[in-house]
Amino acid sequence: MLIETTADVFGLALAKVKPAVERRNTIPILSTVLITNGVVTATNLDMQVCISFPAKSMTGAAAVPFFQLYRIVSNLPPETEIRIEDANRGEDKSFKHGVRLSFDGGSYWLPSQDPDEFPVFKTYSDTKRVVLPDGFKKALEKVLPAISTEETRYYLNGVCFSKNKDDEQVLVTTDGHRLIAHKYDHGIEGQKILPRMMIPAIMGLPEPTAITYSDLHFDLEFPGGSMSMKLIDGVFPDWGRVVPEIKGDQPKLTLNPQTFTRVIKRIAENTRLGVCLAASSADQTLTVSQVTADGDEGMERVPDAAVENWPSSDSDTPQVWSFNANYLLDLCRLYRLEDEIVITAQGKGQPTHVFPLESKTSSVLMPMREMDAGFAERSVSFFAHPQAQNRRAA
Fold first, then answer.
1. 383 closest CA partner among 299, 262, 267, 270
2. Residue 90 has pLDDT above 70, yes or no
3. pTM above 0.85?
4. Can you tell me the distance from the alpha carbon of 111 to that of 194, in angstroms, rounded to the nearest whole number?
């Protein structure tokens, strides 16, 4: 084979296929990349990435060890002209295949594998193709925080292409404790689950323009290449059942996510403990509080929060909502560019709906067991009391 190109062009192509190459494996051919017809291809048997690159000349094919090749090329000056050609070394079987990488001032010999043994994804006959609207990678990024890493329920370890109750197409993820759904017109029929392990590779590639798919296969098309992958063979749960209906008379909190983030971090930084939310509609007071196992106490009033329909502390059903602090922070980061978010639920202990106004992304957060409801309720009284208000004004 013979390739003549430049280090920057070839190095960029190698960088894009890198996520598909495993550094340690028991199959030597999988540690190589196939170079042929102006395309570099890498695979780990679960996904395959193909990237085209311009070359002055290209003939033949070779399967070259990726990491040795990438280390050399990526450390050359960008404009360096490189040449890769066959360079077998005698009759010794251990040197049956090899290539020589040369440039002005340097020459490297690299062992290679038989290109005919390089595994190629099989083609599917019963496939459909859809053109993707702009924003596919942004939609994936929106739902990332709720992807599960649990091995038992493997079907949660990915992004589901689905529809919501209003028959709108969405991308959805859940780990059983939280759920995020983002409206995106993907055009795919049925439910398909994209494995989370594929997402870092997708994020490092250009914006996909189309998907060709079958029941258990995706083929992403993007400018200058393609990515093929296996889908998760499983059934995603009926996630729409846990999304609460929004009613006009249920408790609702409206607040600024940036302000809320700072309050939670001060109360519960670097802890997986829950925090309690308590409020008063009459005084428009929302507090965040926490009591640790060591007896440490903390409480803060959330500035400029609006409280609606919150039962009073002397009612038959006083409201104290408890959540995992890290989950709340994840949602605040998700909505960090929004001016306001709404937190609402049908009642204490019910799935809680979190969403910005006029947004395509909504979330559901499952509550935790109340940690110290009494302390949370007292925090509201403390900040709502006129003397406390005078101290704040002073």
1. 299
2. no
3. yes
4. 35
